[in-house]
TrEMBL record:
SUPFAM superfamilies: alpha/beta-Hydrolases, DPP6 N-terminal domain-like
GO molecular function annotation: serine-type endopeptidase activity
Annotated Peptidase S9 prolyl oligopeptidase catalytic domain residues: 426-639
Designated name of the protein: Acylamino-acid-releasing enzyme
Short name of one Pfam family: Peptidase_S9
GO biological process: proteolysis
Length: 676
């Protein structure tokens, strides 16, 4: 059930966090940026399948690497990788209990190569040496412990062929030559069972791949495609699990017995899509699901783990995350995610119903008092419920309706995607901004996932339209509730959130006092036409959800939603940050609007990171960005700020065409841009 393992791996990413255990300092003491945004002490914690070793990601010489320790003595941990660049953020454990697999790209270009570390020989080998090729680990199974499936787009950059790779001999066998499918579904015998593709209208078609010619199994319309998908199989390969959103609004978990075609709904909710929480490690049967509307709840499907979940939920108020389960299911690694306490990791002994505390993720942060995140529902102007989250500075007192005793500047922090969502829990940007004296508001605007297909599809063709008015409605809610004065609101975000920032300053210029755009697109026409080759099959999604561009009329529709065409309207300070190697929102998207602003003598702060892609993987670059952003906000909104100091020292950065600048020089550039 490889798709289920992928989902669990995605959930595991959330566990990168921090926890408070030591004596708390002053309620309003400034939290250093390096404490909030430096590399975590430990993250991505799991056990090998036999439970013999514990693995995690942690810094080595300032760069994230993979560490390995005997599970009964973490003090003996040793780094098994020695990266000195962007770091290693994740790994996959082979079922032979010998090989630890991981991928690395070059400076964020996303052309990943697969490496394998052998626990017994302590040797590391490059499994996919071809350069300019994207490799992905596609599947692993306890039934085939010495084999994995991998994807490679070496033959055809637009599509991935699938190979079976033997971890002992390192020989790879082509098992499917592909010029059609964008993804696959495999079973626990590592057999290819389905291939999926997107048609020209954005619908997803699944084809059975047995007995020669692919045979259509099911077709999912574009409207249903984001909350309907095949997850995988149980261990027998006879039961198929799906998230089913057809003929309903929110997705349900469904089981299909392939021999008879009989179907059973295992879990559903009227307000939120079902998420898969955990599966049995060998049977591959779903045992619990999560339901995340404004807060996460769980539904147990298998009574075998009911007592375990009840016990684990009694330990901490945070949301429970199951990071890892051994193959014999005797030992788990679990984590707890809360809003104002960092994540805590425990090793859980099922037989004795005992959870042993392991560590926190950022020990230095334990001494600081963190702010609470409050779930709220904001009504859009056309009646939609916008699940949102707001965080206030600790020195702001709230009444029973969570209305503050005084107004504070507000940061509208817009999530990227846009087809993802914000959730309750520890958020370092919320903590940073609240600590500096700002309220922080995150809105799940229409088009966000998790709230059913009606809410998702309400965002179709609404870039700079109703997706943006949802954000404006959130600002108006905050003003109406005496949270902020109308001239003290800033908008910021990354990717789609960066685009929303540019829309805010070009199309609704009177709403915001300033904006911070990280890797946001400025020109929808050039954005949709500048994708990496392997993203080409996905363009039908962009045509149906952002807008087509085949006719002149369609192109004009996108032009009217592109900030590059409204640069003259910018009258508030703007800070833009971009990675040179970004393949999702290419450098030209930022360069276009920066060049246009400079040609029109409109001030802008532009930070270009020479060794980053779609975001900031290197700690030095990440800390430098937040140092610049903090100064920018302080100059405009008058919040608290540390001086930039030496926070640019370890950044590979060009700031307004200047390299190797000091903190003092950077502050002068920001002063000029904001008009101080």
């Amino acid at each position: 059930m490889s798709k289920i393992f992928y989902i669990i791996g995605t959930i595991l990413i959330i566990s990168v966090g921090i926890f408070m255990f030591q004596t708390i300092t002053d309620n309003n003491q400034i939290i250093p940026r390096k404490v909030l945004f430096g590399n975590p002490d430990k993250a991505r914690v799991s056990l090998t399948h036999d439970g013999k070793y514990i693995l995690y990601v942690a810094p080595k010489d300032g760069v994230l690497n993979i560490w390995l320790a005997p599970s009964d003595d973490i003090s003996k941990a040793e780094a098994i990788t020695h990266d000195k660049g962007r770091g290693i953020w994740s790994y996959t454990k082979a079922y032979n209990n010998k090989n630890i697999l991981y991928t690395q790209d070059f400076n964020g270009d996303e052309n990943d190569r697969i490496y394998s570390y052998n626990i017994e020989t302590k040797e590391t080998k490059l499994l996919t040496p071809a350069k300019g090729v994207k490799a992905k680990i596609a599947g692993a199974s306890h039934k085939k412990p010495n084999e994995i499936l991998i994807y490679l787009n070496e033959r055809n950059p637009e599509y991935f062929d699938i190979y079976k790779l033997n971890l002992d001999t390192l020989e790879k066998e082509l098992i499917y030559k592909n010029d059609r499918f964008t993804d696959y579904v495999t079973d626990e015998n590592l057999n290819l069972r389905f291939g999926s593709l997107l048609d020209k209208d954005g619908a997803v078609e699944y084809y059975e791949l047995k007995d020669g010619e692919p045979k259509l199994f099911t077709k999912i319309s574009m409207e249903d495609s984001f909350n309907t998908s095949i997850l995988g199989f149980d261990a027998s390969g006879e039961t198929l699990y799906m998230l089913e959103g057809r003929n309903r609004n929110t997705s349900a978990l469904k089981a299909i017995t392939l021999a008879t075609g009989s179907e059973e709904i295992l879990a559903e909710d009227t307000k939120a899509d079902i998420g898969l929480f955990t599966v049995h490690p060998t049977k591959q049967t779903p045992q619990a699901v999560s339901i995340d509307y404004d807060r996460v709840s769980y539904k147990i499907l298998d009574k075998d783990i009911e007592d375990d979940i009840k016990y684990l939920q009694s330990i901490d108020r945070g949301d429970l995350i199951i990071n890892s389960r051994t193959l014999d299911d005797k030992t788990w690694i679990v984590a707890y995610m809360a809003d104002n306490t960092p994540v805590k990791y425990y090793k859980y002994d099922r037989a004795n119903k005992k959870a042993e505390f392991l560590f926190t993720n950022r020990k230095e942060l334990e001494q600081y008092n963190l702010a609470k995140m409050i779930p709220i529902i904001i009504k859009s102007r056309d009646g939609l419920d916008l699940v949102s989250y707001i965080t206030f500075p600790n020195d702001v007192k709230l009444d029973k309706n969570n209305i503050p005793d005084r107004k504070v500047p507000l940061i509208l922090n817009v999530h990227g995607g846009p087809w993802v969502r914000d959730s309750w829990g520890y958020n370092p940007e919320h903590q940073w901004l609240a600590n500096r004296g700002y309220a922080v508001l995150s809105i799940n605007y229409r088009g966000s996932t998790g709230f059913g297909k009606d809410f998702l599809n309400a965002g179709n063709l609404e870039y700079a339209g109703k997706m943006h008015t949802d954000l404006i409605d959130g600002v108006n809610w905050a003003i109406k509730n005496n949270i902020v004065d109308s001239d003290k609101v800033c908008i910021m975000g990354g990717s789609y959130g960066g685009y929303a920032t540019l829309v805010g300053l070009t199309m609704t210029p009177d709403v915001f006092a300033c904006g911070i755009d990280v890797v946001g697109m400025s020109n929808l026409l050039t954005h949709v036409q500048s994708k990496a080759p392997y993203m080409t099959p996905l363009l039908s999604i962009y045509k149906t959800r952002i807008g087509p561009w085949d006719t002149e009329e369609e192109k004009e529709f996108l032009r009217q939603r592109s900030p590059i065409n409204f640069v003259d309207n910018i009258k508030k300070p703007l800070f833009i940050a971009q990675g040179v190697h970004d393949v999702r929102v290419v450098q030209a998207e930022s360069e276009q609007i920066v060049n246009s602003m400079q040609a029109k003598h409109i001030p802008v702060v532009y930070a270009l990171y020479k060794d980053e892609g779609h975001g900031f993987a290197k700690a030095g670059n990440r800390i430098s960005y937040y140092a610049l952003a903090e100064q920018f906000l302080a100059k405009v909104l008058k919040g608290r700020a540390e001086h930039i100091g030496d926070d640019l020292k370890n950044a590979n950065l060009i700031l307004n065409d200047k390299e190797k600048i000091s903190g003092t020089e950077a502050e002068k550039i920001i002063d000029t841009a904001v008009g101080n």
